[in-house]
Amino acid sequence: MMPPTKKAVFFDRDDTLIIDKVYLNDPKLIEYMPHAFESLKTLKDNGFDLFIISNQSGVARGLVTVENLDLIHAKMEEDFAKYNIKFTGIYYCPYLPESNHPDRKPNIGMILRGEREHGIDLKNSWVVGDRLTDIEAGRRAGCRTILLKTQYSRHKDQGPQAHYEVSNLKSMAEIILRS
Ligand SMILES: [Mg+2]
Q1: Which of 16, 96, 97, 168 lies 20 to 30 Å from 56, alpha-carbon distance?
Q2: Catalytic annotation present for 130
């Protein structure tokens, strides 16, 4: 088997690509982070596969339905498609934090799924998120990591530091492209 050669960026969803509405359950309430479209377009145009990896414990809590989650992700796909951006995979983990499910970040199940299903070379890939649990997952998977610290970031998690910290998605894309 050929070694994987494709490079990817794995994005957290809430407070990374869209504003965290806390257990968002309605596609009409999606609001994108500043620079989301142009930043992802630049990455796509430079040969990166794009993934979303999202913890969605609201499903297990009964606050978000799988049907609505699918509608939310379909709406995001449709909005990004207007800019010719297609996600290679949109993965979510519906389980509670206490589950310590292998897919739930900081575990790396969703990243490994991207690697396995799409031949992604994790050493040449990135994880971007607003929480240190995103960063920890990225580091465990052998990716480089970028912590997004915006006006919306509220979490004070403990965990390993990111390789880079940025205040917006535009800087995120610039770092990846020059690295
Ligand atoms: Mg987040």
Answers
A1: 168
A2: no
